[in-house]
Give the backbone structure.
Amino acid sequence: MEKKSFQEYQLSEELERAINSLGYEEPTQVQKSVIPQALKNNDLIVRSQTGSGKTAAYGIPILERIDWLENKPQALILTPTRELAVQVRDELTNIGRFKRIKAIALYGRQPISIQKNELKQKNHVVVGTPGRVMDHIERGTLVLTQLRYLVIDEADEMLNMGFLSQVEAILKQLPNERVTMLFSATLPEEIKQLAQQFMNAPMEIETEDTGVTVDKITHIQYNTCEEEKFDLFKAVVTIENPDSCIVFCRTKDRVDILCSRLRDLGYPCNKIHGGMEQDDRLKTMKDLRRGAFRYLVTTDVAARGIDIEGISLVINYDVPMKKEGYVHRTGRTGRAGLEGKAITFVTEKEERYIREITEYIGVEILSATPPIEEEIEQKKPAFVKKLADAPILKSSKDEQLNKQIMKLHFNGGKKKKLRATNFVGVISNIPGVTAEDIGIITISDTLTYVDILNNKGPLVLKAMKTTPICGKQLKVSEARLR
Ligand code: ADP
Ligand code: MG
């Protein structure tokens, strides 16, 4: 039985309000199939195309079932990359904003001490990459006794050789009484078989024949050779003139080289690959989301799960080595109902890969001839203008949600013996404010952040400037939301 609107799931008012504020008017296909089953605590193996809303498909039912009072993590989401862990944490935080859900991201190359401190506080949901999650389990900083939900996102990648032993090690540490859910746009049969071993009579949900997004993405290929790729690239983007474009290369070195050549030509361009500092990687992601530059050159590290609004063009500068990789890379465009174009450069050596890919996706990749000189000349002025124009910064989709929220910074925390209940007590005593208006509270040794919901921020900010907590007048100011 299919449901048509989110209301029919009888979600808590807090979740419904957040879903509305995010602009999700009705559940997507996969959400219609998954949400009722997940609310019934069934184990699920789910395949649906890229950009179809899988995160909220597991996020909504899990957040609905979270017991707010429990301090230890109740849900663990495993992802293959750090960027994806951060993105999922943010999406779940948005959906859980009014339920005051605390979600944390654990990933490598961020100081372990920061994460240890975060783990000492209340956390409902942990999103992480396997290596760092295991590290915290071994150190005893991540306690999983209360865990009730495990999600393996991008499951085929996570159960592949590279990650399998780490995921198996984590599985051994989890309570048996739990719900396990697997999600991906590509799920080979052998992965589903493997998953049976640690799942409980899982139900399979598939929303399309293949994971490839056929109706929204135009697939095109250019036959070329290595020496001509760069000129072809310039010609193609001159014609396409994208606002936001992701370019995939085979290796880090090739990313470095292409990115610097494009920079030399004045392209607003940046890169992400595994050889970079994590802070730089995350900053680049943020900038791309804001639309601060137009061309991201990257390896497969950005191929899976990354959801960025308005990527209109994906270019495979090199053909992906695995057929599934093609689905994930090209799936960075054509998301959430928008149209997209995927262009692949194919050298003679790569032709057999492209044949395999075409067979796998079951969709024809149209062969195009390189743009002719006249066309390039004709389109050049518009292209050059866009290169030089300052990009128009995008507002994020959670802006509407966040409008109603103000984060307050107080200059006192644990060292002053302050606890969350102290803040709740005092703030909810302000005339016109109730405990319902208080969101997530984060206390560290010397400072505290309190989210104030429902547009009550300015009121609370003003009042707290002259209202002591536990006899202490703290300095209070507005902080950045994220
Ligand atoms: P997937 O994991 O299937 O690739 P995501 O979970 O990343 O897809 O979601 C793709 C985009 O769709 C995201 O920007 C997400 O916020 C948006 N989205 C999710 N559910 C809905 C919905 N019901 N209505 C509109 N947009 C949605
Ligand atoms: Mg996803």
